[in-house]
Amino acid sequence: MKTVDDINFAGKKALVRVDFNVPLDSSYTITDDTRMRAAIPTLKKILDDGGSCVLMSHLGRPKEGPTEKYSLKHLTHHLSELLGGVHVIFASDCVGPVAQEAVAKLNSGEVLLLENLRFHKQEEKGDESFAAELAKLGNYYVNDAFGTAHRAHASTAVIAKFFPENKCFGFVMSGEITSVNKVLHDSQKPFTAIMGGAKVSDKILILEQLINKADNIIIGGGMAFTFVKAQEGKVGNSLVEEDRLPNAINILETAKKRGVNIYIPIDAVCADKFANDANIKTCDVRNIPDGWMGLDIGPETEKIYSKVIANSKTLLWNGPMGVFEMENFASGTKSVADAIVAATKNGAYSLIGGGDSVAAINKYNFADKVSYVSTGGGALLEYIEAGSLPGIDAINKC
User: Fold this and answer.
1) Residue 354 pLDDT greater than 80, yes or no
2) pTM of the entire structure?
3) What percent of the chain has pLDDT over 90?
4) End-to-end CA distance of the chain
């Protein structure tokens, strides 16, 4: 795996695909800079070598071309702070004369941030001529955007062909690849996968893959009630995907044949409405009354899950155990996070898999107490499902 550590960027302009798709509030203030901070070591390596950085990223899902809401210019000041005061130049387009002139003026030690790639529809279409225009802006291509590596977009996969020798991974990408491969191909046993979130449909493919890898699969979140109903439990008004009941049964049967333990909640914290101020009671997960819905795993399930996690040597966590954004339904997610932190302290390897799991880890200030926190939710899941990603393959091809 070729990384920025294998290249001296002195006097070179590195065209770096970063993932700066960060949330902004109504005043264009960044509310979570995790992805930006993750890219800083790669950028500093290039700058410390005596090179310059030309950064390209997307932000949001602009529908009709350039819009103020999705302009990357809102990120320049904070990026400068993260880089220790390095001046960040902004180009109001990512291709064409504006971008080319800005690159021509760029000196060693400087950073140029290009405007949102998705202001051009050719980016998401994987247009080769658009990728060729982008390729003119650097001597080397560095992909450090794991969160978009599952998309065969112009800037993540197609562009690499224009750098047959001068391409590599940044530290975010190499760290993600190393971490996932460690879990999937070099895991210590027992390997426990903790799968949460709302829908079984979002996790079917990954569950099917994990049955071939894991010793234990813990299921929580809204998706658990589809498994409960598939086993003829009464789940009241809890979230259920009726069309996925056969999938749930198939997953349970396949796991049993292969000797994989699947853990489904035995109790749930239930509410009479989807709100933090709802009436609450703990129910047997197989006998939730009509008019009530399960919004978190219950205390007995917490004990079981925590014990399984404590006895594991490798842990993969993707998805919360309940509606953890509401304090009255956050206990299950917090208990899993606590158990993972304790297991990690005792020598287990823990990979936190993107999305809401990262939000939970950050909420409880546990990011430095687990082995690795992935920056890409969808990309991580697709990597586990498929074994590779377009953005990874593009770099690995010589």
Assistant:
1) no
2) 0.86
3) 79
4) 11
Side-chain-side CA neighbours of 345 within 13 Å: the count stands at 11
- What gap in Å lies between CA 211 and CA 221, rounded to an integer? 19
β-pair type (267-271, 280-284): antiparallel
Q: Nearest Cα to 91, choosing from 111, 71, 69, 114? A: 114
DSSP H helices in the chain: 34-49, 76-82, 96-104, 122-125, 128-135, 171-185, 204-210, 224-230, 245-257, 299-310, 331-345, 355-363, 377-386, 390-396
What pLDDT, on the 0 to 100 scale, is given for residue 236? Answer: 96
Contacts of 27 (CB under 8 A, 6+ apart): none
How far is the C-alpha of 344 from the C-alpha of 91, rounded, in Å? 43
Distance (Å, whole) CA 350 – CA 151: 26
Q: What is the dihedral of CA 169, 174, 180, 186, to 10 degrees?
A: 120
Q: Report cis status (omega within 30 of 0) of the bond before 190.
A: yes
Q: Which residues are catalytic?
A: 35, 199, 355, 378
Tokens 């899993």 belong to residue: 336
CB atoms within 10 A of CB 65: 11
Site of tokens 């809890």:
238
- Residue 184's alpha-carbon distances to 58, 175, 188, 210, in angstroms, are 29, 14, 10, 9
